[in-house]
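Design a sequence for this backbone.
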């Protein structure tokens, strides 16, 4: 693509060596990926400043550079812009031909439930006869092919390439607060924006819950003129967002338990797989959910309200729910030789963990055993609150390692010991090796026990543990195969 065609999408405050007709082969913000004829965008990141690698990019063949710093003495064109991240997103969109315009775009944001809601929506849309891509945490699925997902919301270059590759009618995106704040979705307008909930999370990155909410709410400023918002009204942040979006003049639909909600939850029969009664417009629907837990009631009706806004047949979609295959790493259930129930779930917030416990109690669990880890270099402000909740609600709590993320093991051990000591409960133990923690629970579990292994879901371990497994699911399957059940 000609450089001038790319530059018309961004703000330029200064330039040197302008060559408008130069041809650009590719765009990169990682200097290691630069090849001859490429454009390098220098971004000041959290770990490194891309401006330090401008010369390296030139040496590797970059023919033009865009950055935030004033122009230096370079032999190739340099363009200064106020915001390199924003510029990268718009450049990527222009380079790939604004591919979002070729799809019905659905963005889902919230602390919990994004992934499950996305998978539910994909299933529903496809059962209604449309093709659908999904971009999110577990996998990116495009043209019915699975692609490894590195982040919930990919960087702008990867994201725009996926949108351009997709031949599907609809694209569902999980949109994280990091993705919004780092402007990965800048330049994309959504047909539908869905808000699930908001709770204590990511306060290592955001200064407060209010700031976290403000970032999430930016997604609803990226709707098309005729776009529609679908917002949960059963939490205070959802109600606040409804007021904001209504004030902007956009179409807003809500789901909750109030008479004024567009989709009202009338009743829930709290079986393992809940049976719900809901009302939409003049119709009432009664059906069984394919997933356990009250949180999945909200995920399901949020997806169904979005389906109704898309003018797809609710009856057809509801009838298809019994064929829903589930979500990898979300409340995956495994059997135990003595009759215990093992659950692998991604839950890593207080709300999500409470939902797990509620389900176990409704199923009359004899005991609740929980294997809980925290990630290094992540939100430390929620740790004590979560440990206090878990030790109060479950019978045995095993603190273990999640991803260390370059935090020294000794430092994380010290953190776990402080959490245990401050908690002052005698039902808390520490087993740092995650696989051995699961093995310990496996050996201790009895008939009627519910054992939760939370925090990672389907994700691969980032460090080595003693058992020859790469994730929580494999660890449990290894224990099943080895029959490491010892009599109590």
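Sequence:
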């Amino acid at each position: 693509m000609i450089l001038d065609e790319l530059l018309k999408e961004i703000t330029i405050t200064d330039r040197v060596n302008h060559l408008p007709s130069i041809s650009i082969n590719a765009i990169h913000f990682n200097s290691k990926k630069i090849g001859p004829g490429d454009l390098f965008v220098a971004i000041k990141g959290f770990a490194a400043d891309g401006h330090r690698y401008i010369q390296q990019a030139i040496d590797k063949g970059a023919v033009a550079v865009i950055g935030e710093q004033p122009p230096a003495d370079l032999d190739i064109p340099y363009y200064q812009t106020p915001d390199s991240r924003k510029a990268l997103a718009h450049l990527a969109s222009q380079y790939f031909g604004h591919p979002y315009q070729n799809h019905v775009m659905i963005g889902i944001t919230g602390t919990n439930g994004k992934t499950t809601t996305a998978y539910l929506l994909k299933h529903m849309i496809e059962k209604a006869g449309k093709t659908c891509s999904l971009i999110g945490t577990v996998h990116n699925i495009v043209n019915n092919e699975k692609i490894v997902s590195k982040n919930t919301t990919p960087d702008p270059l990867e994201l725009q390439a996926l949108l351009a590759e997709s031949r599907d009618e609809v694209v569902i995106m999980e949109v994280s607060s990091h993705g919004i704040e780092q402007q990965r979705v800048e330049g994309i307008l959504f047909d539908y924006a869905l808000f699930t909930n908001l709770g204590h999370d990511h306060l290592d990155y955001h200064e407060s819950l209010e700031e976290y909410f403000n970032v999430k709410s930016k997604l609803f400023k990226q709707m098309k003129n005729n776009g529609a918002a679908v917002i949960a009204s059963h939490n205070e942040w959802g109600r606040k967002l409804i007021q904001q979006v209504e004030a902007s003049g956009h179409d807003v639909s809500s789901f909750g338990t109030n008479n004024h909600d567009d989709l009202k939850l009338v009743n829930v029969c709290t079986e393992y797989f809940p049976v719900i009664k809901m009302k939409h417009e003049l119709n009432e629907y009664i059906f069984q959910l394919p997933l356990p837990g009250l949180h999945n009631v909200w995920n399901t009706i949020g997806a169904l309200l979005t389906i109704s806004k898309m003018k797809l047949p609710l009856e057809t979609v509801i009838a298809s729910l019994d064929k829903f295959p589930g979500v990898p790493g979300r409340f995956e259930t495994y059997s135990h030789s003595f009759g215990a129930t093992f659950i692998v779930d991604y839950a890593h917030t207080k709300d999500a963990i409470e939902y797990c416990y509620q389900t176990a109690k409704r199923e009359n669990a004899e005991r609740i055993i929980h294997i809980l880890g925290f990630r290094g270099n992540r939100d430390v402000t929620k740790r004590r609150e979560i440990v206090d909740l878990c030790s109060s609600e479950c019978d045995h709590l095993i603190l273990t390692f999640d991803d260390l993320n370059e935090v020294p093991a000794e430092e994380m051990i010290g953190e776990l010991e402080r959490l245990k000591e401050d908690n002052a409960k005698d039902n808390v133990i520490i087993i740092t090796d995650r696989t051995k923690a699961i093995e310990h629970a496996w050996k201790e579990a009895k008939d009627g026990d519910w054992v939760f292994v939370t925090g990672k879901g389907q994700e691969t371990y980032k460090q080595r543990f003693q058992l020859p497994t790469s994730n929580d699911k494999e660890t449990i399957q290894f224990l099943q195969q080895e029959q490491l059940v010892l009599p109590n």
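The first strand starts at residue 14 and ends at 16.
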